[in-house]
Amino acid sequence: MFIIPSEFVKNGDNRLVVCNEVARSVVEAQRGKHLTHVFSFRGKPVSRMLTTGWRSARKKVGLNVRVHDLKHTFGRRLRSAGVSFEDRQDLLGHRSGRITTHYSSAELENLYEAANKACKVHQNGPALTLLRCANEERSGVMQHV
After folding, report:
1. For the residues of 12-48, what is the DSSP string, one character each?
2. CA angle, 68 as apex, 64 and 73 as ends, to 5°?
3. R_g of the chain computed on alpha carbons
4. Domain for residue 121, yes or no?
5. What SS3 class is residue 90?
6. How far apart are CA 38 and CA 33, in angstroms?
7. Residue at 8 is within a domain
8. Max Cα separation, the chain?
9. Could you give the CA distance from residue 38 to residue 2 in angstroms, rounded to a whole number?
10. Which domain holds residue 99?
11. Are 41 and 53 in contact (CB under 8 A)?
12. CA distance linking residue 91 with residue 84, whole number of Å
């Protein structure tokens, strides 16, 4: 974990960053190579990701993504893993829940499984639901299969 000072954060607040084990191992491997920054290139601090170095590395491994796509991937993986909305919001650094939802859209497999839950047959056979309309003349029984 580390804190990014407010002057470097878009919303002006100090930002707590919690790294998973993979990210932590990458950061730890870079520590001490530069006096003030974790990442450096040819002795100079790396302060932005949209550099020729990033583009070259992406091209070298055949990765056709933007840096920002990585945040979307992280958000989706958190949701898929069942991480709570509040924890996803904190990990992604969002004030607005609407933005968190944008970054952590549902996985199609999860939506498919959720939709199929409506088709589950109860142990005692199909469930019957009585539907009543505002107009009392129209009422009926619908059988769920």
Report:
1. SS-EEE---HHHHHHHHHHTTSSSS-S-EETTEE---
2. 80
3. 24
4. no
5. helix
6. 7
7. yes
8. 81
9. 11
10. 2-115
11. yes
12. 11
Number of domains in the chain: 1
Give the CA distances from residue 112 to residues 66, 106, 115, 119, in Å, rounded to whole numbers and listed in that order: 28, 10, 5, 11
For residue 103, being part of any structural domain is answered with yes
- pLDDT, tens only, 32-83: 889 888 888 888 888 777 778 778 888 899 988 888 888 888 888 888 888 8
- 26 is written with which tokens? 């990458």
DSSP 122: B
> Per the confidence metrics, is the pTM higher than 0.90?
no
**b (16+ CB within 10 A) / e for 45-69:** ebeeeeeeeeeeeeeeeeeeeeeee
What is the total residue count of the chain? 145
